[in-house]
Specification:
The chain is mostly helical. The protein has ten helices and no strands. It is elongated.
């Protein structure tokens, strides 16, 4: 009887040690990944095109798109490509881990497809005040939440504020006037205020 108990104890000890080692590796990998994801060049190492072009553009002397404008203000890729708070960052880290596994096992595609679009919460974690400015020049931001609540086809921040498109006008926040006007018209049409 004592021999069986000792064997069970040894097995439990080995199993417990393996579980602890696995948990330690998971935590160490997560911390390492979180540290590496703070570097835009790390992201661009696997997401080679078009992301490496985005990173190169962000290093230019003067911004050519909204993302490079943000980069000049010390905003990193992960700051926009993760949701708010710890859960948003953890979700982005998990997605990054999945992407890394695909890269290292050779099961990746280039260009790397964006599997999660940028949600408004990813913008409003830094730009929350935008919806609170109650004036005519900002009326679209004020009414956006109402439109989104009533229509699944409503606009989102990135419909007008496209980060990596370089055909926007720097004088109006890198907006492409023609595309933005289409969004304006869609909102006015939805509200019954066609111009």
């Amino acid at each position: 009887m004592r021999i069986g108990t000792t064997t069970f104890q040894k097995t439990a000890l080995v199993f417990g040690g393996l579980v602890a080692l696995g948990a330690l590796a998971l935590v160490a990998g997560g911390l390492s990944g979180a540290h590496l994801e703070n570097r835009d060049t790390f992201c661009a190492a696997c997401h080679s095109q078009p992301e490496s072009a985005f990173v190169t553009r962000s290093l230019a002397a003067s911004p050519t798109d909204l993302a490079s404008f943000h980069r000049a203000k010390a905003v990193r890729c992960i700051d926009c490509h993760s949701g708010p708070g710890v859960m948003g960052r953890t979700s982005a880290l998990a997605l990054g881990a999945r992407d890394a596994m695909r890269y290292f096992t050779g099961r990746f595609t280039q260009p790397a497809p964006l599997t999660r679009s940028i949600a408004d919460t990813q913008c409003t974690k830094c730009h929350a005040e935008v919806a609170n400015r109650q004036n005519f020049q900002n009326h679209f931001h004020v009414f956006l939440a109402r439109w989104q609540a009533q229509s699944p086809g409503a606009a989102s921040c990135v419909r007008c504020h496209e980060s990596h498109i370089s055909d926007g006008d720097v004088r109006i926040g890198f907006l492409n006037e023609a595309r933005t006007t289409q969004v304006c018209q869609a909102c006015h049409s939805f509200a019954g205020a066609d111009d």
